[in-house]
Amino acid sequence: MPAVVIVGAQWGDEGKGKATDLLGSRVDYVVKFNGGNNAGHTVVIGDQKYALHLLPSGILTPGCTPVIGNGVVVDLGVLFEEIEGLESRGIDTSRLVVSANAHVIADYNRTLDKVTERFLGSRKIGTTGRGIGPTYADKMNRQGIRIQDIFDEKILRAKVEGALELKNQILTKIYNRRAVSVDEIVDDLLSYADRLRPMVADTSLLLGKALDADKTVLLEAGQATLLDVDHGTYPFVTSSSATAGGACTGSGIPPMRLTRVIGIVKAYATRVGEGPFPTELFDQDGETLRQQGGEFGTTTGRPRRCGWYDAPIARYAARINGLTDFVLTKLDVLTGFERIPVCVAYDVDGERVDEMPMTQTGFHHAKPIYEYFEGWNADISGARSIADLPKAAQTYVTALEEMSGARISAIGVGPGRDQTIVVNDLL
């Protein structure tokens, strides 16, 4: 049975949680394979809104097994705070499984993240300050702490001692902060052991057996293609692999078992944090998109930078991920605009460029070349088929599909679970 990947095709916040929820009870496992609590999914069910940061959105689907994969970095305090918050609202979280190989965010990682970002000043990356980057750096430096280490105090203490040997030098001598004690970190992490133990498993084995048993596995990315550490707008990126390739390494599912790769793309574009954004708006149109779209970070509350749809970015995401389908979200947010620009190419130092520029310099200098489409004023939130949309909205969707490199198989026309036009089955 299928292993389906859902990835963001822009800079994140495209509505991946809604797309996951759209597949509903047809999915047996939902796997978060990268990132940590530095991004969030907002899922609306009836009149209830759920903001998820670390947990996979499948936690909200009865009978579905949510999995935190080995590619995720886990803040244990946030994990249990989120679990308790959902349980207080009547959500069953007992099926949650956490990979024994996932890495743990220690308190010193959060401290280093914040002080380093302040130290960078005008060169800051725009990190959320939640310790994600330093934890991935520890992983690559082979100084990381994994979930499984919490169940062996001797190994845990040795790893914390090794990590703090250098980090305390950095904290005290460079940043003038107090040294962190080994006991403080070890005691904090050990305090979660008893609650954590029943959730932990060899998730690669679990998922392999699930696929062998004809179960459907959905792999859900945090962040998005343009924030991927290899393929994004480096260095203004996240610290993990947010593309379809990352789904395999972050879950232990081999590439040949992937049957569908779905890219989520807004009908316009947004970005949080620093970095280039060719179609960014600084006028009333940008503020209208922000207010009508509720463009404020699920995790941080930060206002999102807003701009028009960028077709070269969508084509890039389609190519990098091997997208089979797009889900176009928030089409309703464009209602009321007299005309809607779409970036079809860039002007880079006087030369037309139809694809993503190869260099950081080229993308920083890129100016959008727009094609303009007629807007619409009719309320589309009740549309349930393409035919229900105004002609101008139909034309807009068709144009985006032709420009973006993969078919559009679903269209979001509102925040609700049922406010989606399904064009093609996503499984």
Structure, explained:
By secondary structure, this protein is an alpha/beta fold. 32% of the residues lie in helices and 21% in strands. The protein contains 13 helices and 20 strands. The strands form five sheets. A ten-stranded mixed beta sheet has the order 9-7-5-2-10-1-11-15-19-20, with helices on both faces. The longest helix has 22 residues, at 153-174.
Quick overview:
With 427 residues, this protein is of the alpha/beta class. Helix content is 32%, strand content 21%.
Supply the key terms.
single chain, 427 residues, alpha/beta, ten-stranded mixed beta sheet, 13 helices
Oligomeric state of the chains present here? single chain
Helix percentage: 25-40%
**Which shape, going by the Cα principal axes?**
globular
DSSP summary, beta strand count: 20
Structural class: alpha/beta
- Provide the residue-averaged pLDDT: 92
Query: With helices defined by DSSP (H or I, 4 residues minimum), what is the helix count?
Result: 13
Compute the CA-based radius of gyration: 22 Å
**Sequence stretches where pLDDT stays below 50 over 5 or more residues:** none
Approximate strand percentage:
15-25%
Strand order of the largest sheet: 9-7-5-2-10-1-11-15-19-20
Largest sheet: 10 strands, mixed
What is the terminal-to-terminal distance? 10 Å
